[in-house]
Amino acid sequence: MKVFVTALTPILLTIAPAAAQDHSAHTQTSPTQTTPAEDAVPHAGHDMQMPSESSSPAAAGDGPASAADLYFDPIVMARAREQLRIENGEVITHAVIVDRLEATSSDGVEGYAWDVQAWYGGDINRLWWKSEGEGAFDGDVEHAELQFLYSRAVTPYFNLQGGVRQTSRPAGDRTDLVLGIQGLAPYWFEVDGDVFVSNEGELTARAQAEYDLRLTQRLILQPRGEVSLSAQDIPEFAIGSGVTNVLVGARLRYEITRSFAPYVGVEWSGAVGDTRNFIQSNGDDPNTTRVVLGVRALF
Fold first, then answer.
1. CA–CA gap between residue 286 and residue 283 (Å, rounded)
2. What is the SS3 assignment for 200?
3. Residue 1 to residues 11, 12, 14, 262, 289, Cα–Cα distance (Å)
4. Helix or strand or coil: residue 35?
5. Mean pLDDT throughout 2-29?
6. pLDDT score for 6
7. Which of 21, 27, 101, 118 is the most exposed place for a label (fewest CB within 10 A)?
8. DSSP of 54-82
9. What is the pLDDT of residues 220-240, one digit of tens each?
10. Which of 72, 41, 105 is nearest to 266 (CA)?
């Protein structure tokens, strides 16, 4: 054992100074070695720039309004947009609505009545033409009116209308300014209300509503009601102030096509208040019940 230790002693004395020298080299800070403070900062010592505001992504809406503008010539895009506007934006159309064209029978008196409307224009602005009236086959026209109106959509379901009306009766004629509203009320009631101011300063009004009750796909029952009012007495037309007349009726039509439908129905009309008194003083019946037979058509 002594011989083994004696042999290793020179070798150990030779290795120890070298190991001490190598350990001291690791404890010294080299010129290129970073300090602990530098190690705490990521990428310290590197020449890098932080992103600036100028390099941020473009905000929404900074690009073209349409992606197609990036690929097609502006002239081509303008032509395509104009064609789209014509076909889908400002379409000019028209319609003729024969709401009622009928023969009537009341107490043995045969007569006729009509209610026709037509319009021309787009979705927002239209020109309307309206005509309605009634008479007896063996006599004169009892009442006829013609309206020319400008109509503007104020909601998706209602149009505000204004214009003039010419009314003709055996007792005389009237020219009125008209302001009204027409449209589709909740639960699919078609409504129409108008206020009239005549060239004689008379103020009158009228409101009507109707509803299509589909019994089958082709058989439709249409109840209809109308109320007329006046702000003053108009003796020459046997009209009193207040509510002047109430009309209710129903028509049952069969749609041979959606644009043509014959119908039958019954209608009751009664004068109210002072108007009733005017009619009775003239020896006439203030109430009328009549059976109607007619057609409804759309063009």
1. 9
2. coil
3. 16, 16, 21, 135, 145
4. coil
5. 45
6. 46
7. 27
8. GGSPPPTTSS-SSGGGGTS-HHHHHHHHH
9. 999 999 999 999 999 999 999
10. 105
64 pLDDT band, cuts 50/70/90, is: confident
Question: How many residues are present in the chain?
Answer: 299
Helix (H, G, I), strand (E, B) or coil at 187: helix
Q: Determine the average pLDDT of the residues in 247-253.
A: 98
* pLDDT band, residue 58 (cuts 50/70/90): low
- What is the C-alpha separation between 251 and 196, in angstroms, rounded? 28
Please answer whether residues 278 and 241 qualify as being in contact, where contact means their C-beta atoms are separated by less than 8 angstroms: no
**Segment (H or E) for 177:** strand 172-185
Q: Among 2-16, 82-96, 241-255, 267-281, which is the least confidently predicted range?
A: 2-16
Q: Give CA separation, 163 vs 128, 149, 175, in Å.
A: 9, 4, 11
Q: Tokens 């029978």 identify what position?
A: 105
**Six-digit token string for 45:** 């010592």
Task: Give tens-digit pLDDT for 167-204.
Answer: 999 999 999 999 999 999 999 999 999 999 999 999 99
Q: Give Cα 227 distance to the centre of its chain.
A: 27
3-state SS, residue 45: coil
Q: What would the two tokens of residue 19 be?
A: 């190991």
pTM for the full predicted model: 0.71
C-alpha–C-alpha distance, residues 96 and 119, integer Å? 7
Exposed (0-12), middle (13-18) or buried (19+): which is 221, by Cβ within 10 Å? middle
List residues bridging with 195 in a β-sheet. Answer: 179, 205
The token pair that represents 25 in the structure block: 């080299």
